[in-house]
Amino acid sequence: MTPAALLLTLLLAGCASRPVPEREEAARLRASMEPFLSGYRESIAAENLLCADTLAWLRGSAISAPRTQAVSEARVLTDRWAKVYFVPRWMHGNLHLDKYSSAQVKAVQTRILQHLRQRYFELHDFQRYAQQASESAMYHTPAGRLPAQLQEFQLRLETKPAAASELDAILTALSY
Predict the structure, then answer these.
(1) H helices of the chain, where?
(2) Predicted TM-score (pTM) of this structure
(3) Biggest alpha carbon distance in the chain?
(4) Does 18 have pLDDT greater than 80?
(5) Within 13 Å of residue 131, how many CA atoms lie on the same side as its CB?
């Protein structure tokens, strides 16, 4: 191999391994988030409404309605919590597969994934509370009382701040 061909080969090899500029990675992260953001915002609104509906159920028919009615309503709430839980879980499942080489973009992706994970763990807890009520807890508690786990559920919902989308604020941390 001639020295010119060797130099050309080395230059081409160096160009192929050159890292993707940070600006392109930031744009790629934003683009990967874009299809999910409207559904995510809708799930935030649905979560806030569902918290209010669940508290109304816990303070009302979960205590005073016949047990079969309370169980039936718990099943409806279970399904609604599952739908809300699914959104951040699905987003996390799709977004964690993306790989970035830039430290700043990796850090933002990590914050996004941590936020989504925290949300879906909390929402899954709420779905399980409702599911437990629909499966057995309501049948074994006399009317006029809430089972202990539903008292805990009520306390968690009463102290929970309203959900808000933090993804836009996290994405603004990208300087590009």
Answers:
(1) 3-16, 22-59, 61-64, 67-95, 103-132, 148-159, 167-171
(2) 0.81
(3) 92
(4) no
(5) 10
